[in-house]
Amino acid sequence: MKKRNTGIIFIYATLCLLTQNISAQVLTEETFKISKTLNIIEEFYVDTTNISRITEKMIIEMLRDLDPHSTYISAKDVRDMNEPLLGNFEGIGIQFNLLRDTIIVVEPISGGPSEKVGLMPGDRIIKINGEQVTGIGISTNGVRSRLLGPKGTTVKINVFRRGAKDILDFTITRDRIPINSLDAAYMINGETGYVRFNKFAATTDKEFREALVKLKKANMKNLIVDLRGNGGGYMTASTQLANHFFADEKLLVYLIGRKTPRQEYKSSGSGDLSSVRLVILTDDGSASASEIVAGAVQDWDRGVIIGRRTFGKGLVQNAFYLTDGSMIRLSIARYYTPSGRSIQSSYSEGYEKYIENYTRRFTSGELMSADSIHFRDSLTYKTLVNKRTIYGGGGIMPDVFVAVDTSNYSDYYRTLVRRGLFNSFILEYADKNRSAITSEFKTFDAFKTRFEFPQDDIRAFIKKGEEAGIKFNQDQYTKSEGEILMVLKALLANNIWQTNEYFRIINEKDNVIAEALKVISDRNRYNKILGYK
Fold it and tell me: Who has greater pLDDT, 345 or 98?
């Protein structure tokens, strides 16, 4: 389905991961009380107990009582959490999907070890290191655990390939595989570039710089930065991105905590994009590091924020590793935008109320009307150049609000989405038709311009839904037909090409991007929104 966060999202975004030695901390009377309690339970409790589980539950509840973003992460989950932010993992380098209990290669990662040995999209992996992996009910985690491993080690796989006479054998040497934070980068019209980030990782600035080379060669004059659904990541990656937009030294964000002295992060003054017209796209899934970028751009009247109110996460976490490899991410400071505003949503009434206040956005009408959003007078601030009114607390309010477009939605469409029919249909469709499509459409541009699903294929999609228990409704299908066919085509493009091509199709009917293009292409309107005469 669409790669956007349209549901309820609770974001534990890491602003900075710094390992500290917890053993250096002073042991207190309270520390001994906790340890003594656990010892008493283990020695004398009437029934057998799991002290490890009790300890983890105690830590989780204790941290939750502090604030919504201080959290405990088990040793098993630490690596999975860090990999996307570190920007790499070690394995064979494929994107895969499970189709009817079979591992299908969607795409070998460019430059990775699987591509180098000749693995191809559509290949079916039937054995890994001699173990049969079809028909055993293997899970995604099961595939990952078999294919991931230390750099330099090898994994042997047996592959069925359509058209090949025999089963193909590959021995692949695992290597370090990049994880991209940049989903898309392309010229959305003759003078406007578009980039979309899914997170802020260690590789974000490098990815952005590489994308800029191509965009500048295409004579980019304006830039749309899409941070919708971007839950954050490394704070330094967000300040590196913001640095591109300022020609002189500007405060971008600062941190203060009870044990954390004020730390300021400023632009270097060498911004290579300081003269472009800039639009930042946000929504309720834009959090922490995304809010740092949006906050700095808005506070300095540097660009126009378009979309919907951001999540509202203004707490900074540090990582403290425990003896078994598990981790506590503890809030150690608050960050503030250059104007001095904190955008952290209130959690004074506790964790459950905090979550409730966030989810209320989806029922209060906020996604449809800016008038449904109310800020306290005490949270009013002024931008630093043109003294426009802006707000702190509970996220960043965009300069231009754009409501959620539900005009093509229907219950039938939503049910297809919930049941995962789009992805499962396209996975099978691409597997069967890949060669025919790439033969007829030599380039993505040709596919984007000319490809349409034949009526037989549309009927096959509807039938697949009915087989899954989704009753066809002609009126609702008619209402959602444009959206359904667009999403199917975008997912097919993503399967045959890359994520960039997915967004090149999806974005054409995106009402937020349509508004962004109107604003960024009209110098007078752009300047008026920012308060320039």
Answer: 345
CB 266 within 8 A of CB 250: yes
pTM for this entry = 0.83
Q: pLDDT tens digits for 494-517?
A: 888 888 999 999 999 999 999 999
Assess whether the region 88-178 and the region 182-315+332-403 belong to the same CATH fold: no
First CA to last CA across the chain, in angstroms?
Answer: 43
Is the CB of residue 178 less than 8 Å from the CB of residue 90? no
Q: Is the pLDDT of residue 36 over 50?
A: yes
DSSP H helical segments within 200-269, as ranges?
204-217, 235-243
The residues that bridge with 91 in the sheet, in sequence order, are 175
As a CATH number, domain 88-178 is 2.30.42.10
- Class for the domain spanning 182-315+332-403: alpha beta
What is d(CA 456, CA 129) in angstroms, rounded to the nearest whole number? Answer: 41
Q: What is the mean pLDDT of residues 250-278?
A: 94
Q: Residue ranges of the domains in the chain?
A: 19-85, 88-178, 182-315+332-403, 411-511
pLDDT-derived band of residue 111, with 50, 70 and 90 as boundaries?
low
Residue with tokens 């049969």: 132
**Do 318 and 329 touch, CB atoms closer than 8 A?**
yes
Tokens 């730390």 correspond to: 263
CA distance linking residue 171 with residue 405, whole number of Å: 49
The owner of tokens 């201080």 is 70
CB of 432 within 8 A of CB of 396? no
pLDDT digits (tens, 9 = 90+) for 469-479: 999 999 999 99
Q: How far apart are CA 351 and CA 67, in angstroms?
A: 7
- Measure Cα distances from 318 to 225, 314, 330, 333 in Å: 28, 13, 6, 9
Q: Where are the beta strands (DSSP E) in 337-425?
A: 380-382, 389-391, 400-401
CA distance 336 to 175: 40
Give the count of alpha carbons within 13 A of 314, CB side only. 26
Q: Please, are residues 204 and 182 in contact by the beta-carbon 8 Å criterion?
A: yes
